[in-house]
């Protein structure tokens, strides 16, 4: 098991990609501290993972006390901290005409500042243990879609944070920092969102090959597999890198004018 003995904090871990990462980490021998907003789903996940393998901290990651609470919980419950996965995110549509400053600030607070705060709070413990950070971004970080303005910019800022800290923290403290930029992922929330937008229940079974040359979009478990590798010692001294998990080239791909999607 490639994460045997490691203790990992995972934010946004009650659902979606974060939940898949938590499950994969435990399967690979790690102990996890999971954070999220959905108390009932968090308790259910703890029951699945086992109390001996996981601890739950419910709370908004933007609250100033949460980063230190997560670090102290890891130390108190499992004796140390080896890694952090910044997965919690705020995803909402906006464009140049309807993006208010308060909305923009909230997007940055959740998607960029909160990950920074958790890394900052974790630095001492991670340095002691030769630890690492994996940030979950989005392929929208490279520019994004017109109706995902604020979200795309916040993920672009996270990508720069990853590049910067991945170099400086590795050189100064031996802490690796990397990022995964997922493309379109079939989470339970994505299924519900598309259904609420009027699409049929099985919309994901009939996706244009323009968006999914493989005939399907990514599973959360596939993102989790990449995260587990980056968290492991098998990754070696890789740091300050961004891994795009997408099915097609991002540069030079022309979007049809009549198609708009949300990743």
TrEMBL record:
InterPro entries: NAD(P)-bd_dom_sf (IPR036291), Sc_DH/Rdtase_CS (IPR020904), SDR_fam (IPR002347). Pfam families: adh_short_C2. CDD domains: SDR_c (cd05233). It comes from the Bacteria. PANTHER family: EG:BACR7A4.14 PROTEIN-RELATED, ZGC:101858. Belongs to the short-chain dehydrogenases/reductases (SDR) family. This is SDR family oxidoreductase.
């Amino acid at each position: 098991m490639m994460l045997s003995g490691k203790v990992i904090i995972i934010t946004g871990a009650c659902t979606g990609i974060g939940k898949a990462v938590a499950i994969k980490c435990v399967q690979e021998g790690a102990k996890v501290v999971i954070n999220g907003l959905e108390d009932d789903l968090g308790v259910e996940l703890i029951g699945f993972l086992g109390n001996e393998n996981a601890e739950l901290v419910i709370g908004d990651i933007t609250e100033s006390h949460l980063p230190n609470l997560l670090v102290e919980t890891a130390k108190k419950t499992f004796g140390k901290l080896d890694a952090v996965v910044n997965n919690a995110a705020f995803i909402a549509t906006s464009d140049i005409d309807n993006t208010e400053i308060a909305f923009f600030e909230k997007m940055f607070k959740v998607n960029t500042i909160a990950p920074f705060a958790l890394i900052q709070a974790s630095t001492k413990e991670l340095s002691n243990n030769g630890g690492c950070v994996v940030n979950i971004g989005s392929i929208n970080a490279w520019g994004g879609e017109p109706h995902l303005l604020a979200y795309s910019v916040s993920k672009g800022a996270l990508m720069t944070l990853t590049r910067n800290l991945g170099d400086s923290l590795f050189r100064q403290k031996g802490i690796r920092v990397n990022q995964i930029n997922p493309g379109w992922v079939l989470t339970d929330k994505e299924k519900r969102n598309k259904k609420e937008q009027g699409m049929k229940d099985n919309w994901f079974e009939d996706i244009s090959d323009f968006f999914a040359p493989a005939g399907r979009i990514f599973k959360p478990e596939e993102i989790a597999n990449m995260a587990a590798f980056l968290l492991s010692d098998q990754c070696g001294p890789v740091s300050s890198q961004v891994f795009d998990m997408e099915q097609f080239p991002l540069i030079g791909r022309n979007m049809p004018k009549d198609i708009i999607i949300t990743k």
